[in-house]
Amino acid sequence: MLACFNYQRGRERKPAHGYLCLLLIISVLVITSTACSNSNCQLLESCSSPTDCAPGLYCGNCPSMGKTQPTCTRGQAIIPTSIISGLPFNKYSWLVTHNAFSIVDAPLLTGSQRITFYNQEDSVTNQLRNGVRGLMLDMYDFAGDIWLCHSFQGQCYNITAFQPAINTLREVEAFLSENPSEIVTIIIEDYVRTPKGLSNLFTDAGLTKYWYPVSKMPRKGEDWPTVNDMVQSNHRLLVFTSVASKEADEGIAYQWRYMVENESGDGGIVPGSCPNRKESERLNSKKASLFLENHFPTIPVQSESCKEHSVSLLQMISTCYKAAGNVMPTFLAVNFYMRSEGGGVFDALDRMNGQTLCGCSTVTACQAGSPFGVCKNTTESNRNPMPSTAGSFSGSVELSGSASVPRFTKLLLYFFVSVSIDVVLFKFL
């Protein structure tokens, strides 16, 4: 377009050329003025700032898939019960955040530089507001209290600790109090040895009033009560522990008595394979009616997670669905849940719920009261899949800083060298 303004000595511009330049300038101005902004940009439309995208979307990209141009990307889940309600709890598919507490840029509360992996990018409150309904939490005895740690060998250290567990549980309590029709599941990787430690913790957090009693949980693979019944009775918090003895000692359900689960980490994302983890019954077992699908690598990398939540996620869901005897996962656990090339885990959950709840390609095509398989046209709504019935959850969809693997590797090396030196010195003292 600069050619329109070039001055060529000794030549006169022809009138036609001037008109063409004028039209070109006008067309550029029109295109610029009609570009979406101010929360008007829809799914996969180009954006340049966080405020460009419609509610439930954020402005992001996926360089690991060659998509460097920012586009409006899904950042919130559709709550399936807002479209089809009244079915057993286990008939729905719910989003779970793996190591929900292990958050990039989380404050350092122990006075030490943290040396561990990170799995999420926003607060637990924000996760819940964005439609997460399950939290995987690692709990340890630490500093005279129970802490959330991302550690190893059953021991929490200053450099692997995040915060006292009661802080996160109070976030859950506040959410349940503010949202009286929502149900939350907590899955604990349990390293707490303090007698009655967990039961006292949940009592202190004010969560026992929402507690789903172990005595009422289906033990032989039957359906769970309907979500409506669970809400009506205020049994809106399901808690599972990895320690079997705590079911009798503290009234906390032993996870693999009620749930089947595929392998976690790299073993759970091998194309064409969906093995159960060793503690779990086989995925097609009829002894449990809850099914947890893990979909995350052993080493979490933020920049790769958008790729992990693309076609490979849908393929693994299909593989695990078949391995479970054509049963859809009740829970889908992921890292960095908002990262994707467009729809990501939210689109996958829409498909899962659509197939199970109404026999449609997406839950947004379901129609309450219609026969199974009767679906409405969703072509237009695909521009922004968040229906008016999605709920009023308004969690931020902004992404935070980066936790790089090279930085972690250096810190981890420093840690092991330090520990080795301490052990050697201890032997000689």
Describe this structure in words.
The chain is α/β, with parallel strands linked by helices and 429 residues long. It is 28% helix and 15% strand. The protein has helices at residues 15-34, 124-129, 165-178, 197-204, 227-232, 246-250, 255-258, 302-308, 311-323, 344-357, 405-428; strands at 57-62, 67-74, 94-97, 132-142, 145-149, 161-164, 184-191, 237-241, 253-254, 259-261, 290-294, 331-334. Strands 3, 4, 5, 6, 7, 8, 9, 10, 11 and 12 form a ten-stranded mixed β-sheet that branches. A two-stranded antiparallel sheet has the order 1-2. Helix 2 (124-129) links the parallel strand 3 and strand 4 (132-142). The longest helix is centred in the C-terminal third of the chain and has 24 residues, at 405-428.
Unreliable segments of 5+ consecutive residues = 5-13, 28-34, 388-395, 403-429
**In terms of structural class, how would the helical and strand content be classed?**
alpha/beta
Number of helices: 11
Number of strands: 12
Would you summarize the structure shown here?
The protein has 429 residues and is α/β, with parallel strands linked by helices. It is built from eleven helices and twelve strands.
Could you name the key traits of this structure?
two-stranded antiparallel ribbon, 11 helices, 429 residues, ten-stranded mixed β-sheet, disordered C terminus, alpha/beta
SSE order and pairing:
Elements: H1 15-34, E1 57-62, E2 67-74, E3 94-97, H2 124-129, E4 132-142, E5 145-149, E6 161-164, H3 165-178, E7 184-191, H4 197-204, H5 227-232, E8 237-241, H6 246-250, E9 253-254, H7 255-258, E10 259-261, E11 290-294, H8 302-308, H9 311-323, E12 331-334, H10 344-357, H11 405-428
Parallel strand pairs: 3-4, 3-12, 4-7, 7-8, 8-9, 10-11, 11-12
Antiparallel strand pairs: 1-2, 4-5, 5-6
